[in-house]
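Structure representation:
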Amino acid sequence: MKKFILVLLILVASIPIGYKIATGKYSEKQPVNFIQSIRMSQTKEGLLSYKQSIEIKLDMIEKEAPEMEVYFVTITFSQYLNEFELEDLVKRYNLKVHAIVGRTIEKDTGLKGTFLIGIEDMKIEYDKKDLENMLSRNDAVFKGFIELIADVSKRDLCLLKNDERVFLVDVSADSHFVLNPKHEKTKSWDGYMQGIFDGLEKFGLVKP
């Protein structure tokens, strides 16, 4: 079994970032510009409004979609998760994971960083030594996992969205709602919707 880690340490700048959702009913496909989609709202109210918009889509799925339909989602956690909490979430809701996102903090400067780990074979396995080396090079500490990109069945999705460790299950990049050519043709997770954990931190919404 292959496994690999894609480490992208990105310092979080104080740039206002917000979010937008593609409109449309269940099973309608609407094109979306992913660059524009994360730069609309600059307020706490805007972020919560985005969450509410996504939850309308989730309610639609719960009422109308076939039980075993599968969705391509970005999950934003409500708190920092450690390795064991992450594994429990994945197993509990039968998630087929494509990538996980973690948070780091530089020891001296306090600057936040983000790293993304690409997962092969849908298994939560990665080279922890690579992660430790990345942290060491940047004189940073690991704060926790903050987001996850995965496939999930409608049955498990309806349970997952109510888990207290989850702030939002975002279906905006799923082919049922958005015509994303890369995702449609290759089933690649490259076209995933960006998570919103940065906003939770910015507006003090992260659970202790």
About this structure: The first strand starts at residue 10 and ends at 11.
